[in-house]
Each structure stands twice: as C-alpha cells, then as structure tokens.
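discrete fold record:
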Amino acid sequence: MAMTPELLAYYEQDKEDGRLRAGRGRLEFWRTQDVLRRALPPAPSRVLDVGGGTGVHAEWLAVDGYRVELIDLMPSHVERAARLAGVTARQGDARRLPVPDESVDAVLLLGPLYHLADRADRVRALAEAVRVVRPGGLVAAATINRYAAVHDMVYQGLYLREEPRETVNAALVDGVLSGPGIGFTAYMHDPDDVPAEFADAGLPEVARYGLEGAFWLYGDVDDWLDDPERRALMLDAQRRLESVPSLLGVSGHVLTLARKVSPVSTRFTGTGQC
C-alpha cells in the first residue's frame, strides 16, 4: 500500500469522510456500526482502527467508551483523527503495524484491503492484525465486492459510456479496478475468496455480513435513510438478510469477522464476548 501520488491526491479531497456521512453511503456506515456493536468486546476494550482515515468510525467507537488507536498511511488523516476526543492516532502501514504483539482487543481493517492488489499483501495485513490482537480477540475487515463497480456505474448512468464500462468490466476478471476517472488502483473481492485469505493469515473460522444488501441500489434509498422510521425498517430488513450466501455479492461491501484462536474457543460466535 504505497503512498502513490494518485492515492495522496484522492484522499486529500476528503471524499471518504463525506461519503459515509451523507447520501446512500450512510447505509454502509450505519450497517458497519450495527454489525460491530454486536461483535465487539465490551467497552472500554482497546480497539485498533487500521486505515481508519479521518476517524469516521473511531469517533463513534470512542463515544461508545472504547479506547481507540487509529493508524493510517495519510499524514493529513492522522492529524485530523488525533483531534477527536478519546482517539490517539499515528501514521503506519497495515502490513507493518507499529503495535506490540497481543496488545489490543480488536483490530478493524475497514479500508486497507481495498488498496492491496496483491494477495500476499492482503494476507500480510490480516496476519499483522492476528499478531497484535489478544487470543480470543476480534479481527474485522471490510472488502469491496467484485460486482460493486458495475452495479454502481449502472445506478449512476455511467455504464452508458464506453470508457467507464470497459474499466469496470475489466475488473470483473481479476478484481483490479484502475483507469481514467477512478483516482487510484483498487481491489475488489469475490466474496467467496475472502475466507481463504483469512485462513492463510491464521483465522480459519469467519462470519460474513453483507453491509448494504441490494438496498444501496434502490433509487429512493436516500428518502428511506432520511426518515428515521423508514431507516430503522431498512436496517432491520438488511440485518435479517445480511448473511444469506446468495445475497452477499449484491452488497457494495462485505464485512468479515473472525476471532483469534485461543485455548478456550476456536469458533466465531458472532457475539461480543471474547
């Protein structure tokens, strides 16, 4: 995950912070909260937010009472996140975490795997998470679905144009999304490939959660999210469908959770008890 000029230019625009706070990106944000709040150990456990950006998730975790340390590649992200109450932040790479062995209760990788096109690098980042989390602790990683770019281009009407259509169709082959208008190279997972990467990093038992389901593709999704009553119904509906295998690939993102093997328990339970 090198600091390329393209990556620097993209994140200096501050698009990611705003994407999760407005429009249909809120569905991903609220669903991430929903899943993690069910799985994290009780506060004030120590949570390491790797690739945490400006602290979109670190902020609510700190409000919930967690001791949060954020690590990010971008100096501007680290500077901004460090201003959040209850959050410490420093620069670092997901593949070489500046954190001692077995020193945190949960590790979140809610962005780094997007930027690691080589499988070996993704496994290395997951292995680093395993190294720093305590036995029985939680590792959670978000991935972009292989089919998300095609769905999104159709949703936005951009699939009508030849150049973006060719770009997203090429990514269906190997998962690498790169080309004019993308801003940087991204990697998009086939959801069925994720458990093997976790296993190779030392996490053989996983649970997968589709974050948005099909709802992010609905034309009136913003109206549902703007209305508290309708939003609650939509979030409840997706919670009921979140782990249906045949529906995982339609989500824009999948959140995969696992617990570090300990002498007491070797299976992921899906609860907050570590």
User: Anything to note?
Assistant: The mean pLDDT is 92. The first strand starts at residue 46 and ends at 50.
